[in-house]
Amino acid sequence: MSAPRTVLRPAITEDAETVARLVAALLTELSGTDHLPAPDLARDVLSEPGIHAMLALQEGQAVGVMLLNECAAIYAGGRFGEITELYVLPALRSQGIAACLLAQAKAIARARGWHRLEVGAPAQPDWGRTLAFYQAQGFQEIGPRLRLLI
């Protein structure tokens, strides 16, 4: 039997609970502690201009999510896209779902006239497989990212 077909569609505010659940799973996997982003927060983010969110569905069930933000910086030559969340259910990884989501990000970038996409990879070397995936998709490592919580 063949694998179920993956369908991509934009995530809209009505998908806030689904998006929050998938992002919670991502954060839990990365940190090892439970995270429960509020659906209201997901709804707010999904309604922001400049946010492009996609759901990957199989047989009508969400199996992956990607949030892509429009950013601007002089070093980037103006506007560009930043992938802030990308997650596929663990049991369905290595089946091309994340690659489909990234292909959609590239299509959005071309349509918006962006010449650059960025993504933050989780801490290395623990997440080497994730880094290798992005590199296989054409991303180049440009160094660590830092944050300051305010």
Please tag this protein with its features.
5 strands, single chain, 27% strand, 4 helices, alpha+beta, Aminopeptidase
Compose a concise summary of this entry:
The chain has helices spanning 16-31, 39-46, 97-112, 128-136, and strands spanning 6-10, 51-58, 61-73, 78-88, 117-119. The chain has 150 residues and is an alpha+beta fold.
Q: Overview of this structure, please?
A:
- The protein is about 35% helix and about 25% strand.
- The protein has about 150 residues and is an alpha+beta fold.
- The chain has a single domain (about 5-135), classed as 3-Layer(aba) Sandwich (Aminopeptidase).
- It has a five-stranded mixed sheet, with helices on both faces.
- Helix 1 packs across helix 2 (about 40-45).
- Its EC number is 2.3.1.-.
Topology (SSEs and partners):
Layout: E1 6-10, H1 16-31, H2 39-46, E2 51-58, E3 61-73, E4 78-88, H3 97-112, E5 117-119, H4 128-136
Parallel strand pairs: 4-5
Antiparallel strand pairs: 1-2, 2-3, 3-4
Helix pairs in contact: 1-2
Sequence stretches where pLDDT stays below 50 over 5 or more residues: none
Placed side by side, the strands forming the largest sheet appear as 1-2-3-4-5
Helix amount:
25-40%
The biggest beta sheet reads: 5 strands, mixed
Distance between the termini: 51 Å
Structural category: alpha+beta
Can you say what the CATH homologous superfamily is?
Gcn5-related N-acetyltransferase (GNAT)
Mean pLDDT: 92
Strand proportion, as a percent range, falls in: 25-35%
Given the structure, what is the number of helices? 4
Report the principal-axis shape. Answer: globular
Instruction: Tell me the total number of β-strands.
Output: 5
CATH fold category name: Aminopeptidase
Q: Radius of gyration in whole Å, from Cα?
A: 15 Å
The CATH architecture comes to 3-Layer(aba) Sandwich
Run of helices and strands:
EHHEEEHEH
Quickly name the level 1 CATH class: Alpha Beta
Number of domains: 1
Domain N-acetyltransferase: 6-150
GO molecular function, one term: acyltransferase activity
Organism: Gemmobacter denitrificans
Pfam family, one: Acetyltransf_1
